[in-house]
User: Which sequence fits this backbone?
């Protein structure tokens, strides 16, 4: 994922790669972004990490991951990986 890529661009990239999210799942992703007050960057990274860990879309895992990363105040991929390792997720 490119560091300057918006959430919409990342979703389009997933679609182009053959990972088809339903309209309901996309709406949930934007709901979770707003609900957790997450940035485009963090929402995209959380989605990428969730798909790598779960191999499919899991809304409750996605929103929990966003909450965890927001609470941790991460600002880089390295910090995200550290937090996930500490929690035994990664």
Assistant:
């Amino acid at each position: 994922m490119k560091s300057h890529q918006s959430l919409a661009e990342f979703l389009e990239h997933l679609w182009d790669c053959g990972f088809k999210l339903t309209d309901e799942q996309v709406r949930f992703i934007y709901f979770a972004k707003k609900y957790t007050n997450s940035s485009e960057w963090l929402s995209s990274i959380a989605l990428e990490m969730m798909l790598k860990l779960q191999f499919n879309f899991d809304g409750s895992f996605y929103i929990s991951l966003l909450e965890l990363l927001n609470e941790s105040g991460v600002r880089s991929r390295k910090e995200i990986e550290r937090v996930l390792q500490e929690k035994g997720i990664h």
In short: Residues 7-86 form one domain. The two ends are 18 Å apart (CA to CA). The mean pLDDT is 93.
